[in-house]
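Lab notebook, bench 4. The sequencing result for the construct came back, and we need a structural model before the next group meeting so we can plan mutations. Quick request posted to the team channel:

Model the 3D structure of this chain.
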Amino acid sequence: MSRLQKQADGRKKQAALGRTQARSHRDKSKSNRVSSSPPLWRLIHYGHNYRTQIWQAIACSILNKIFDLAPPVLIGAAVDVVVKQQDSLIAQWGVKDIFGQLLILSFLSFIIWGLESIFEYAYARLWRNLAQAIQHDLRLDAYGHLQSLELAYFEDRSTGRLMSILSDDINQLERFLDVGANDIIQVITTAIVIGGAFYILAPNVAWMTIVPIPFILWGSIAFQRRLAPRYADVREKVSLINGQLANNLTGITTIKSFTAEEYELGRIEAQSDAYRVSNKRAIALSAAFIPLIRMLILLGFTGILLYGGMDVVAGSLEVGTYSVLVFLTQRLLWPLTRLGETLDQYQRAMASTTRVMNLLDTPIEIHSGDTPLQVEQVRGEVLLKEVTFAYHDRAPVIHNLSLHIGAGKTIAIVGSTGSGKSTLVKLLLRLYEVQRGTITLDGIDLRQLRLKDLRRAIGLVSQDVFLFHGTVWENIAYGTFDATHAEVMAAAEIAEAHEFISQLPQGYDTIVGERGQKLSGGQQQRIAIARAILKNPPILILDEATSAVDNETEAAIQRSLEKITKNRTTIAIAHRLSTVRNADCIYVMEHGKLVEQGRHEQLLEQQGIYSSLWRVQSGIK
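Done. Here's the predicted structure in token form:
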């Protein structure tokens, strides 16, 4: 390759990295703009795809409330017919017969009640289906975004806290959309319709009903502002309880073995009590809302009752109109008592919305590159050049590290605990991003490659095997979901797992339990190896794959590894030097630096760190 061509390739790589960094900056800027908005606006912004359903639901809620407010008018008209008879309002339409007038009112009642029922059914379906749809999409978007976040995000947060957001907070939002949104719309509709009717029918006494409303609204807003931080604290306490419960259920074996049941029960009791106290503070405020509102409503109702009645006696107000006003006053003011419950739901929902939206606004630090990678064409040459990496707020664990892994070669990385061996695995998979230096695969910077393609090209067998709750077959086929039963069995045979699987109660259909707890450590390890074999990656990483098994199982695993490491790049991280003595090259790391390299025999001759480790493990003095 000419010098000019190399320079051109270098410029292309730098441009690709620049695009990745710019995309990350744009995502962060967008996140900062959205996250500063009120939670309700953020929810509305999220639900913009449901505009049609939202407007339909709002229209049905408004129409239902309008028809719900019509019966008091019919009652007033009926009183007008009974009192005025041939001089009633309906009689002015040409129907003088009293029975005919009442028949018309009965017919209108059927129509109004029917329409009210139809629109109630419509808004209930629309709001509930809308709540389910947004809940479904929000949970999928939140979980999908969560999967895209870097590994450091999960290491800084408890599983229970994240579970609380994905489950409890999103469910809380669904409950508000089910009921609370409709209640708010109908209260607003009631105030507008009845307020307008009052000014048309009796403007001289309408103000008596309207006067309490500003105080009610002011009180509602004041309660809302005071309730908001209390419900935010409630949501926080819920996440802490969920985190502790999830942690305890995962570590139940440790709890039992150390007879720590009472201690853990005490911790749960303390957190549950903190949640109870937090809720108690919120309840103390929200419970006072309705009694106070009742007193304000009483003022308006009493005013209409007294002054309206005196106007009737004075002849300035019709009896029928007075009946309508009395009923409408109650219909206007009484629903406002539900503002307390509605605000309660609203504040809980907004506290949950803030937590969910903050999760969605969390910027993705590790972005996929644009360069595709055909797995079958990967040679597997890996080059680390002056790589430096440090975990957040910690000293660097890898310092200016450079090493070469030839295509199709088997190399080993050894060293004491904390030397940075497992961190290299995370950097190769781009679970973390290097802070300085570059890592290339077949000459291409990892940051330029499509993330999915990169990870498809790498098979990882870790010391900490994770098996999902499901069958043996499902766990072997995990990641290669289109594999046939014959392919799964062939992979199990190479991994020397077929024999013990066949002896399980249901064979390949045996449920392994959560995290594979029904299987021994060696059995779990061999299933993990079978899973990697089935994936058939050009690069295989063995991270302490035999450190937690007995000698017999280790021998079985070694036999299977000898088969699967042929014709592929293999990176073995190991404490047991006997498992990597035949590697093409052994790299020795110490405090994040490369201190020795060579084949087994060469390293023994150097009389360095590797030689010392070998003598300790082999019992040579």
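Confidence is low (pLDDT under 50) at residues 1-34.
Will bring this to the meeting.
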